[in-house]
Amino acid sequence: MSEVIAAMGAKVLERFPAGSPRGSWPAEEYAAQRRAQGEPATVVMDLKSDAFLVVLQGDDD
């Protein structure tokens, strides 16, 4: 996944295990907090590590 993130030009801010309790969305909540601060954070799933990654898209598009 790190190769894909690098190819996207994205920076991983935080990673959260996919096994959160039902009704808990810590990656989405963290991304929403970052967006509220003006950062274009989004959540992607890393299937290989079974984790949600909060990423920022790179500026070199």
Task: Report on the architecture of this protein.
30% of the residues lie in helices and 31% in strands. The chain has 61 residues and is of the alpha+beta class. Strand 2 and strand 3 (51-56) form a beta hairpin. Strands 1-3-2 form a 3-stranded antiparallel beta sheet, with helices on one face. 11% of the residues are buried. It has helices at 2-8, 26-36, and strands at 11-17, 41-46, 51-56. It has 2 helices and 3 strands; from the N terminus they run H-E-H-E-E. The two termini are 19 Å apart.
Order of helices and strands: HEHEE
Given the structure, what is the number of helices?
2
Write down the overall geometry: flat
Residue-averaged pLDDT, rounded? 85
Give me the Rg, rounded: 12 Å
SS strand fraction = 25-35%
Residues in helix, %: 25-40%
Given the helix and strand composition, which structural class is it?
alpha+beta
Largest sheet: 3 strands, antiparallel
DSSP strand tally: 3
Q: Order of strands side by side in the largest beta sheet?
A: 1-3-2
Distance between the termini: 19 Å
Give the uncertain stretches in residue-range form: none
Please outline what is shown here:
The protein is an alpha+beta fold and 61 residues long.
Looking at this protein, list some descriptive labels.
61 residues, alpha+beta, three-stranded antiparallel beta sheet
